[in-house]
Amino acid sequence: MAEIILVIGSNGQIGTELVTELRRIHNVNQVVACDIRRPDYDTKNAGPFEFVNVLDKENLKQIFTKYKPTQVYLLAALLSATGEQNPKLAWDLNMNGLLNVLDFAIDFGTKRVYWPSSIAVFGPNSPKQQTPQFCTMDPNTVYGISKLAGERWCEYYFQKYGLDVRSIRYPGLISWKAMPGGGTTDYAIHIFHEALKKGSYSSFLSAETELPMMYMDDAIRGTIELMDAPEDKINIRSSYNFGGVNFNPEDLASEIKKHIPDFKLNYTANDPRQKIADSWPKSIDDQVAKKDWNWQPKFDLEKLTYEMLRNLKKS
Ligand code: AKB
To answer: What is the ipTM for the molecules in this complex?
Structure first.
């Protein structure tokens, strides 16, 4: 049976690249981009596009009725920093959006659902180094709380209804095609834009704030590899730890200086995102993903920096 794939939240940082890659792998018309905003490309040439608001059940039902998707990727969410500015909306979108999609996936016989979790599920009492798959989890942002609750719902729907839901705990994702949307790790993208434009950047995270990060090409490849893995290999139905590269703003600046020797990094004090970053892991132990579905990142800090600067210069 031909796959019909819905990508909900298709205009965001991940959606933009995931839709392109899925359309490269499948027939363009098998991948339906869905978002509350019109994309800024010509939808007629690019493939099907639908307006979808995951909180509007009637709208969602119409889309499921029209396409009867075999796979759904649900990416629509409010991230850690914007979530703190509007906690109730973040909870509503991140939680009820997920439950609506899980329910329609069951009603319409969708084979497989992907939903991203995040390193934000960990908190101040989680181990900071090589944070394991299973450990204390006490997230203190509404985003982290919603992701942890969402993980439990995913596992519940798998166990109770047999729905094949798969998930990854993304670290900060570094990309050049679309801007990030209000996360704590966004400094690691802004720094490249400002380095090329102004030769300097003022980081809202302090010099020693080390966080798990990943180049978008790795994240997209890993996501599709997880979705393509045989069902009997998937032992985690909450969400998989997923490791790429770990660095702090100073490490990143040193790497950028190899290409832009005069680059200057300054720091802005007292940004609320610092407290969020301080509660997150510095590195992730992803041996379960490696064992279950052969996860292997390809981009280290050197390669990621080279690719970001090279692509941003061209764009
Ligand atoms: C954020 O910073 O909120 C996201 C994430 C790590 O999930 N990039």
So the answer is: 0.98
